[in-house]
Amino acid sequence: MTIRVKAIIGSTSSTSFNLKLVEHLRKKFTDELEITPVFINDLETFSVDIENTPPANVAKFKADVKDSDAVLFAVPEYNFSIPGAMKNAIDWLSRGGDQTLTGKPAFIIGSSMGVLGSVRAQIHLREILSNPALAPIVLPGNEVYIGAVHTKMNELGELTDQATIEFLDLVVQNFIEFYKKTTALTAL
Question: Helices then strands (H, E): number in the chain?
């Protein structure tokens, strides 16, 4: 069984290290995970005035995320938190009554050029995701904070640092087991 994972790319940069990490996972785990990046670059700013009739790009984004077995959040850190575009995307997922993320297994990865590898952003993201209007089931105890990420990739943007590769392998295997247990419990 292949788990269909939508990877919400938190950066709007065309050279996003987090997107490169998602691409690494997408290529490496094709037998277990069907990872599809979901981009947030052009989403309209959330407003209650349009939440029940969202623009087409927002409706497509929400449908893309909903049409998955699981969600991967790939988050950079901007000013000690998540990027504004990512918060906007999550705001859209929390509104409109369709409960896009509720009960959906999820995991989080993050990287930055700094030494902390998006730790503060991920703390904020986990707090945001704990909102009952969102409520995904986030993989516990497998925090992925990849610091100095630019030194762990080659000039083609491929992950080359063996310790980081092995750690990501472990987290993905942990997520697959978590997914199986979580979905087995919810099927009861």
Answer: 5, 6
Dist CA 103 CA 35 (whole Å): 19
Q: What whole-number percentage of the chain has pLDDT above 70?
A: 99
Cα–Cα distances in angstroms (integers) from residue 171 to residues 18, 52, 86, 108, in the given order: 16, 37, 23, 10
Tens of pLDDT, residue by residue over 59-91, are: 999 999 999 999 999 999 999 999 999 999 999
Residue 26: its H or E element? helix 17-28
37: tokens are 């990046």
4 bridge partner residues: 34
Return d(Cα 89, Cα 9) in angstroms, integer. Answer: 10
Q: What is the DSSP letter of 1?
A: -
Which amino acid makes up residue 38? Answer: V
Place of tokens 């993989």: 139
